[in-house]
Structures are given as C-alpha cells and as structure tokens.
UniProtKB/TrEMBL annotation:
Protein name according to UniProt: Polyketide cyclase
SUPFAM superfamilies hit by this protein: Bet v1-like
Species this protein is from: Cellulomonas xylanilytica
Length: 152
C-alpha cells in the first residue's frame, strides 16, 4: 500500500531595488493587479483599494485536468515604512505570497516577495525545480512592477 500523502511547503522569494518612491511602486503594483484582474469580484462591503481592500477572482481552466485557480487578494497593512499585501491562490494546492515595499533611500524602494507553496504529495517528493520556477516567477513579477514604474 502506498504511503499517505503529506503536505509539503516550498518557500518562494524574490527581491528587487527599484529606483522610484514607494508610492509609485505601490501604484504600479496595484495597476498590474487590476489589469490582471479580468473581471475579479470585489467583496461586498470591502474597499477596492487601500487598507482592507479585498477581491476574489477565478482563473481559467488550465493544464490537462482543467483545474481552475481561485485568487483572494487583501491589502493587510499600510504602515510606515512599508506596505504589505497578501494573495492566496488555491486549487489542488495553495500558494500564499506577500509583497513588501520598503523605503531604502529617498526615491528608492526595495520590493520583496515572500511566500510558500503547499500541496499534498508523497513523502520525499522533490520540489527543487518547482521552487526555482516559483522564485523566477517572483523575480519576473518584480521586474514587471519596475517596468510599469518606468513606463516601459
């Protein structure tokens, strides 16, 4: 009899210094998320932007099994010197990410994505390639934010 699945947690991260004030970086990140929203649903009674902003959206069917992803986004903190948002994606797995924006110098912002991907799988499953891919996606997300700030 095969061993039961265990929940594996794969940490993810990315970091980039962006030559722009934190407010401009934040605005670019919000605009990117809104463009990607494609008809997401605002939660009734919750603001669409700023502290406490929450939204839910359903992704298209993907992969050979047609799994759809549900993404929940919430702005969890707006405090000096950083702003924090969290996103939770879930289907047959869960991926939680946090975007942290830190003032490091006048006109410069350190953007950091940290998160964890969780999924049941047999004990001993190697997720090193997945971790590299998720870290690359985090880096690409930060590069898209930087490009949006530059207007390119």
């Amino acid at each position: 009899m095969p061993a039961p699945d265990v929940v594996h947690t794969v940490p993810t991260s990315g970091e980039l210094t962006i030559d722009a004030p934190r407010a401009a970086v934040w605005r670019a990140a919000i605009e990117l998320d809104e463009l990607a929203d494609d008809g997401g649903y605002a939660l009734v009674g919750q603001p669409r932007s700023g502290l406490g902003a929450k939204s839910v959206r359903l992704g298209p069917p993907v992969g050979p099994h047609g799994f759809r992803t549900v993404m929940y986004s919430e702005v969890t903190a707006l405090q000096e010197p950083h702003w924090i948002t969290s996103e939770v994606l879930t289907s047959t797995w869960e991926h939680v990410e946090t975007l942290l924006l830190l003032d490091i110098d006048p006109g410069r912002t350190r953007a950091r994505v940290t998160g964890a991907w969780r999924r049941p799988a047999p004990a001993g499953t190697d997720f090193s390639e997945l971790q590299q891919s998720l870290d690359l996606l985090a880096a690409q997300y930060l590069e898209r934010i930087a490009a949006a700030v530059r207007g390119s």
